[in-house]
Design brief:
Largest sheet: none
Strand content: under 5%
Structural class: mainly alpha
Helix content: over 70%
Order of helices and strands: HHHHH
Radius of gyration: 18 Å
Protein name: Divergent PAP2 family protein
Pfam families: DUF212 (PF02681)
Keywords: Membrane, Transmembrane, Transmembrane helix
Distance between the termini: 16 Å
Organism: Photobacterium kishitanii
Number of domains: 1
InterPro entries: DUF212
Length: 142
């Protein structure tokens, strides 16, 4: 049984999440537990969907319906991360400015992703899929 389709997205999520935490901790010069969530480099969502698309391409080829669906889902996720979620973040900034000095809780302002963060997610996802595809058979045989 081929568990790589199950392992790859989980492994990619772990790599992207740890990378994001490390990068945010270095940038803020403290452990960045408050920055866990949406936004930041690399994009977790992009990494996960691109890892699955890349794994399908590596194992089954790019001429399969599954690859087409995976690429379609990846585009939707990336457009959402850069478009809609960026607009939500802009609204959060404006609402927080209006609510300064009130008892209203501050909204999270880091929600969407920049194109660089999405590109880093693409690279992370493809790299993780390549690594799992290359090393998982070796680990299972050993």
């Amino acid at each position: 049984m081929d568990f790589s389709y199950l392992i790859t997205p989980f492994f990619t999520w772990l790599v992207a999440g740890c990378s994001k935490f490390l990068i945010n901790s270095i940038k803020s010069r403290q452990l960045a537990f408050k920055l866990i969530g949406y936004g930041g480099l690399p994009s977790n969502h992009t990494s996960i969907v691109c890892s699955v698309a890349a794994l399908i391409a590596l194992k089954d080829g790019i001429d399969t319906p599954a690859f087409g669906v995976a690429v379609g889902v990846a585009f939707i996720v990336m457009l959402d991360a850069n478009g809609l979620r960026q607009k939500i973040a802009q609204h959060a900034v404006m609402i927080n400015q209006l609510n300064r000095g009130t008892v209203s809780p501050q909204l999270r302002e880091q929600i969407g992703h920049t194109r660089l963060e999405i590109f880093a997610g693409i690279i992370t996802g493809i790299s993780c899929a390549w690594g799992v595809n290359l090393f998982l058979p070796i680990i299972i045989i050993s």
